[in-house]
Every structure is written in structure tokens, then in C-alpha cells.
Design brief:
Layout lengths: L10 H22 L7 H7 L9 H8 L3 H13 L3 E6 L2 E9 L1 H25 L1 H18 L17 E5 L2 E5 L5
Antiparallel strand pairs: 1-2, 3-4
Length: 178
């Protein structure tokens, strides 16, 4: 029976390590920018809030936490001014969690750091390998992310596309948000 080499992490662990490195850099930069009250758990819920707002039950499901936990985290984010609850225009009984003005500032700061980290990764891997990594992960997302397309992000939340030259030709290195 063959399997992974004992000292070599699986692909899942390697992707997790990269994700955690990005998350750590973003949260550190947010703290330096004055957004020092955001925890990783809060960030994982906050990053799923869409442009038009998102219901708490959807946030809980996407963050893979209970509705009570999501509610607790949203309460904390609301008290800190990152989100606000509004009436859902499609259902008077429902409320939407929406990004508040302070949250939009934090989103812009986080997106800038994400672009910086991804540029560093592109420089390390080379433009071609980085572009292939992005394409591969987007394809993998098709079968691994049941919520793909369910978060409608503001333009300011979307990292910019990084242009790169490969073999004398311009190639666009697509960078996708989370």
C-alpha cells in the first residue's frame, strides 16, 4: 500500500498552510491599520458577507458554524462597527448582515494585503506557475466549494488582476478572492 511520505504534507495541508499564512498576514496588517479587534473566527464569518448583505443562517452554513456561533460573532462585529443588520427587502421577517462603513475600510485594507501577498507568491513561483496554480484552484473549487458564486463581493473586496509577462507575451494572472 502506498501513501504520502510520512514527512511530506498532503495537498490539503499544503493549501491550509498557504491559507493560514495569508490569514495571518491580513489580520496582522489589519491590526497595524487600527482594526485590531478582529479575530480569525470573526474574519471567517465577515469575509462571507455579500455586497447586498447575507442572512445569518447563510453565514453560519458557509462558515460551517452553528447559527448561535455565527450570531455571537456577528454581534461582536456589529458592536465593533464592521457590520450592521438591515431588513431584508425580499422578506420583511428576515434581516441581512451588511458591511458597515468601518467594515468597508477594513475590507479595502485586507484586499491590499492580499494583493501584496499574492504578488510575492507570484514572484516566488514565477508568473506561469502562479497562473497555473490559480487556474487549478479555481477548477478544484468547482467540486469542493458548495458556496461558489453565493457571495456577491463589492469591487473593492476583489483583488486586482496582476499582469505578468511570460516568454515575452503578456499573460494575465487571475487572482480570485478567497
Amino acid at each position: 500500500m502506498t501513501g504520502p511520505v510520512k514527512d511530506e504534507p498532503t495537498l490539503g495541508v499544503l493549501m491550509f498552510i498557504a491559507h493560514r499564512a495569508m490569514e495571518t498576514r491580513v489580520l496582522s496588517a489589519l491590526a497595524e491599520a487600527g482594526f485590531d479587534d478582529v479575530t480569525p473566527a470573526q474574519a471567517r464569518v465577515f469575509e462571507r458577507v455579500g455586497r447586498q448583505g447575507t442572512r445569518l443562517t447563510e453565514l453560519a452554513e458557509q462558515a460551517q458554524v452553528t447559527k448561535q456561533t455565527a450570531g455571537f460573532l456577528v454581534d461582536q462585529l456589529e458592536r465593533a462597527g464592521y457590520v450592521e443588520r438591515r431588513r431584508d427587502p425580499t422578506d420583511a421577517r428576515a434581516r441581512l448582515v451588511c458591511i458597515a462603513p468601518r467594515g468597508k475600510k477594513a475590507v479595502r485594507a485586507a484586499a491590499a494585503v492580499e494583493r501584496q501577498v499574492e504578488a510575492e507568491w507570484a514572484a516566488h513561483l514565477g508568473p506561469r506557475a502562479f497562473a497555473q496554480l490559480g487556474r487549478s484552484l479555481r477548477r478544484l473549487r468547482e467540486i469542493t466549494d458548495p458556496y461558489a458564486g453565493s457571495v456577491d463581493l463589492d469591487e473593492e473586496q476583489r483583488p486586482a488582476v496582476v499582469p505578468a509577462a511570460v516568454d515575452g507575451q503578456d499573460e494575465t494572472v487571475g487572482v480570485e478572492h478567497r
